[in-house]
What we know:
The protein has helices at residues 16-27, 41-51, 67-75, 106-114, 126-137, 145-157, 168-171, 175-185, 190-197, 201-215, 220-229; strands at residues 7-12, 32-38, 55-59, 95-100, 118-121, 142-143. By secondary structure, the chain is of the alpha/beta class. The protein folds into two domains: 7-81 and 92-154, Response regulator (Rossmann fold, 3-Layer(aba) Sandwich); 162-229, Winged helix-like DNA-binding domain superfamily/Winged helix DNA-binding domain (Arc Repressor Mutant, subunit A, Orthogonal Bundle), CATH 1.10.10.10. A six-stranded parallel beta sheet has the order 2-1-3-4-5-6, with helices on both faces. Helix 3 links the parallel strand 3 (55-59) and strand 4. The longest helix has 15 residues, at 201-215.
Amino acid sequence: MPRSGATTVLIVHDQALQRLGLRMLLAAQPGLAVVGDTVEGAEAVRLSARLRPDVVLLDSAAAGPDGIGTIRRLSRPDTLPRPLGVVPPAEHRPRVLVLSQGRPDTYTYAALRAGAAGLLSKDATPDELTAALRTVAAGDAVASPGLTRALIDAVRRERPSVTPPPEHRLAVLTERERDVLTAVASGASNAEIAGLLCIAPTTVKSHVSSILTKIGARARVQAVVFAYESGLVRPHAPATAA
């Protein structure tokens, strides 16, 4: 049984020794409790519905051939199709923390769009992992600074392959929030944005929180993706030889 008040975690990893190691590591941490583990994504979805963990720790290699679908089913179960006339029960929506290869790729980009709340490199330290679990469980987002910066660079270079959202999605943002989001998409920190816009860092934090709520994003890097896909920010044109 989980310790009273503990953040509960479901581990999804395809290597037995890694699962055991993660269980032992988290069991020794105050305020964390492992409620189950599995080797693949489809079983993770079933266990999540039954065990209702606060966080699903998902190794990207274990998510299965439909890894993005697994993330979507875990983080957004209310979007799944249902028989006509069936009223769904109250859905459990765990936070999904993805262990990635440490550099952005197509999977990483799609994972954020599917609803992943956090991205952590597989070479993260035990302290970084436990801190990330607590952070996403508290409702905040996690992405290591290096991964965030690399993802921003990757989004800049790649024109979105999906149709940009309608303009009305940008209309929910105030002019100041658009300014802040533009700066976020450039990779600026809250302190840098505060200096650029001549406002307090706490005000920047408040604006970022409001932006995430309005656009339905869980992570700062998801806001970056939104900024490019909505057309608020345009990818740099590739350099051409003289």
